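Team,

Forwarding the record for the chain on the shared tracking sheet. I've put the sequence and predicted structure together so nobody has to dig through attachments.
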Amino acid sequence: MGLLEEARSEIKLGLAEVRSAGVGYMLPMMDAWLADVTVRTGDSEAALSIVERALMSLDDVSGRSWEAELHRQRAEIFVAFGPSREREAESSFMKAIELARQAEE
């Protein structure tokens, strides 16, 4: 098993433990880590799925603090798909910028 796959397994284990302990505020951060490692293994579809799931489940203040980063990460994943997903990448980058600016206010 390569280092990336090992990291992916460890993060999945950590996510399972956090979920079973009911520590929801850490989930968006850990999902972002998992998506990052997953895209590095070349599985962009799975990474996109992880980010989409994380975005759909944001509901508290601490989770919302990761919203801009998740949109930025989503954009980077679309970039990895190539020119066919360029518009989606641009839209996600713009959403990340908008949310980051709102957070500064």
